[in-house]
Amino acid sequence: MKISILGTGYVGLTTGVCLAEIGHSVTCIDINELKIKNLCAGISPIYEPGIEELIINNIKLGRLSFTTSYDKGLEDAKVIIVAVGTPQREDGAANLSYLEGAAIDIAKNIKQDVIIAIKSTVPVGTNEVVKEIIQQNCSKDIVVDVVSNPEFLRQGSAIKDTMEADRIIIGSNNQESARIVEEMYKPLNVPILITSIRSAEMIKYASNAFLASKISYINEIANLCEALGANVEDVAKGMGKDKRIGEAFLYAGIGYGGSCFPKDVKALLHTAGINGVEFGFLKETISINNYQRELLVKKAIERFGILKGKKIACLGLSFKPDTDDMREAPSINIINSLTELGAEVIAYDPVAIDNAKKILGNNLTYAHSINECVTDTDAIFIVTEWREFRELDLPSILKKMKNPIIFDGRNCLREEKIRDCEKIEYYPVGKPSI
Ligand code: UGA
């Protein structure tokens, strides 16, 4: 099938690459010339394990191409997938200007009947508006239908999440359009659920808000475990064995971040508000998450009294491992609080330093290695659970520090390893300190 994709961010690029991999002919369109030039040379604009090999291979096989031209890129497409960003507006609502722009660009350039599958996360009702915009702006003899096709991939495991998706949601009010989109995804051999457009739009927000709330719930349980001397990891394991609860997304820590959960929870709350529904539950999800982001700083204040003049090593900057994405990363709140309190911060991250510099500037020192980062520090904050932090050579790290104190915001160090150390103070989340 001939498919065009608008937007080469995480969602658009991964979808394009995976659809090419299962045999479709895919053209990805983006207005950013440098991005397209790099993609044509097999260079990915995002850090995502495995994606560059797939790009290069599918370009070679003639199944994947990239262009800045709408005219060329939309030629003969049976389905156009739209995956442009919907960032957060100041009032918490989703900013739909990129999507509306994309709709007009499609309408002005399309020359054949086409189905438009919207992957961008959009408030309920938006797909209907997009359909109207396109119909008003395109030639009257062209039939355009819009299908809601929300995306559930995670950064860092985007390829796997697409190729082995738990489900594909197709929201359509037209049976034939739903059938064509279903046929496009069939080779993936994953469960497909067809719903109305509005239900599909709602499934995306309801899923992300539920997962974010699951994290806030376990974080609040962790805080209670600390007060009561219980261990949140055992509690989560015990809860997760119940199939109705499930083990995933029960890792306590310093809160959820990234470009999706914070934005989508706020957008759903905003939608509820303007529709007269008081969604207090989501307000709690957000407020627990805000509290959790300050947790390590609070623990450090309890330990040291004042943080002025203390040198703190921050291991990890990205909002989670295997990505260089700094959007809504808890590290931003943590580092800003530490520097406001007069602490000196030195940070290390395997891939996110360039992006971190754009947000945090020169408020801190950036280290080139773990060893450089921890030398002569009063404490380590583990902020992102990168594999190399899980595998820290603790005795050698502790020797380099002024004080052998670790605040582990992701519970990523093994207890036996810590107990083997002669001198250490270890403060995890939701578990007794050592
Ligand atoms: C999330 C969803 O998981 C995807 O299903 C969805 O498609 C995506 O948003 C989106 O809407 O585009 P992502 O933001 O890439 O994916 O990251 P996650 O792996 O879900 O992690 C989000 C945050 O939750 C991270 O900060 C992570 O550290 C935190 N988290 C996750 C926890 O604190 N505890 C957990 O148990 C799990």
CATH architecture of the largest domain: 3-Layer(aba) Sandwich
Major sheet, described briefly? 6 strands, parallel
Number of domains: 3
CATH C-level label of the largest domain: Alpha Beta
Helical element count?
19
Q: Which compounds are bound in this model? A: uridine-5'-diphosphate-glucuronic acid
Q: Any idea what the CATH superfamily of the largest domain is called? A: NAD(P)-binding Rossmann-like Domain
* Residue windows where pLDDT falls under 50 for at least 5 positions: none
- Overall structural class, as computed from helix and strand content, comes to alpha/beta
Strand order of the largest sheet: 3-2-1-4-5-6
The general outline is elongated
Helix fraction, binned, reads 40-55%
- Quote the average pLDDT: 95
Rounded to the nearest angstrom, the distance between the terminal CA atoms is 59 Å
CATH topology of the largest domain: Rossmann fold
Question: What's this model, at a glance?
Answer:
The chain has 434 residues and is of the alpha/beta class. The protein is 45% helix and 14% strand. The chain is built from 19 helices and 14 strands.
What does this protein structure show overall?
Belongs to the UDP-glucose/GDP-mannose dehydrogenase family. Keywords: NAD, Oxidoreductase. This is UDP-glucose 6-dehydrogenase. It catalyses: UDP-alpha-D-glucose + 2 NAD(+) + H2O = UDP-alpha-D-glucuronate + 2 NADH + 3 H(+). Residues 313-415 form the UDP-glucose/GDP-mannose dehydrogenase C-terminal domain. With 434 residues, this protein is α/β, with parallel strands linked by helices. The protein has three domains: 2-195, Rossmann fold (3-Layer(aba) Sandwich), CATH 3.40.50; 203-290, N-(1-d-carboxylethyl)-l-norvaline Dehydrogenase, domain 2; 294-427, NAD(P)-binding Rossmann-like Domain (Rossmann fold), CATH 3.40.50. Helix content is 45%, strand content 14%. The protein is built from 19 helices and 14 strands. The chain has helices at 10-21, 33-40, 51-60, 70-73, 97-109, 126-137, 158-163, 175-185, 197-228, 232-240, 261-274, 280-293, 295-304, 330-340, 353-360, 370-374, 387-390, 394-400, 415-419, and strands at 2-6, 25-29, 64-67, 79-82, 114-118, 144-148, 168-171, 192-195, 311-315, 344-348, 365-366, 379-382, 405-408, 425-427. The strands form three sheets. It has a six-stranded parallel β-sheet, sandwiched between helices. The protein has a six-stranded parallel β-sheet with strand order 11-10-9-12-13-14. α8 links the parallel β7 and β8 (192-195). The model has no long low-confidence stretch (mean pLDDT 95).
